[in-house]
C-alpha cells in the first residue's frame, strides 16, 4: 500500500472517529481498502493512530470543522496525485516503482502522513 492511499485512509478513519455516524465505521473503511492492504497487518492500527494524532493536533477545531478539513484534504491529495501521476508515470514504470504494491517502510507511514497532511494544510 502506497503512502497516498494511507494518507486518505487515515483521514477517513478520522472522519469515522469524529462523526460516529451509523454506517461510517472502521469495518466499512477497511473492507473498501482491503485489496490494497492485503498482507499488511499494520495498516488498521496505524490508521487509527494517525486519526488520533490528527484529532489531537486539531483539538481547537470543532468536530464538524475537523470533518470538513479531512474531506477537503482527501480531495486535495487526490488532485495532487492526479497531477503528479501524469508527470511521473514513465519514470515509475522504468524504475519499477509503479509495480510495488506495498509501502517501502511501513513503520514510517504515520509520521510521513502527518508531514504530508501538514504540508497540504499549509498549501490550502
Descriptive terms for the model:
124 residues; mainly alpha; 5 helices; 0% strand
Structural class: mainly alpha
Mean pLDDT: 75
Shape: globular
Q: Count helical runs.
A: 5
Radius of gyration: 15 Å
Whole-number tally of structural domains: 1
Query: Uncertain runs with pLDDT below 50, 5 residues or more?
Result: 93-101
Total count of strands: 0
First-last Cα distance: 26 Å
Helix content: over 70%
Topology order in helix (H) and strand (E) letters:
HHHHH
Task: Give the strand content.
Answer: under 5%
Described by strand count, sense and barrel closure, the largest sheet is: none
Notes on the structure:
By secondary structure, the protein is mainly α. It has one domain. It has helices at 3-19, 26-33, 43-57, 63-95, 109-123. It is globular, with a radius of gyration of 15 Å. Mean pLDDT is 75; it is low at 93-101.
TL;DR of this structure?
This protein is mostly helical. The protein is built from five helices and no strands. It has helices at residues 3-19, 26-33, 43-57, 63-95, 109-123.
Annotate the secondary structure layout:
Elements: H1 3-19, H2 26-33, H3 43-57, H4 63-95, H5 109-123
Amino acid at each position: 500500500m502506497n503512502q497516498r492511499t494511507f494518507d486518505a485512509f487515515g483521514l477517513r478513519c478520522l472522519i469515522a472517529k469524529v462523526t460516529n455516524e451509523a454506517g461510517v465505521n472502521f469495518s466499512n473503511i477497511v473492507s473498501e481498502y482491503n485489496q490494497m492492504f492485503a498482507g499488511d497487518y499494520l495498516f488498521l492500527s496505524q490508521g487509527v493512530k494517525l486519526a488520533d494524532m490528527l484529532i489531537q493536533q486539531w483539538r481547537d477545531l470543532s468536530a464538524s470543522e475537523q470533518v470538513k478539513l479531512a474531506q477537503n484534504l482527501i480531495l486535495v491529495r487526490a488532485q495532487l496525485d492526479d497531477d503528479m501521476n501524469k508527470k511521473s508515470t514513465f519514470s515509475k514504470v522504468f524504475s519499477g516503482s509503479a509495480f510495488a504494491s506495498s509501502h517501502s517502510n511501513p513503520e514510517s507511514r504515520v509520521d510521513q502522513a502527518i508531514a504530508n497532511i501538514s504540508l497540504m494544510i499549509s498549501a490550502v
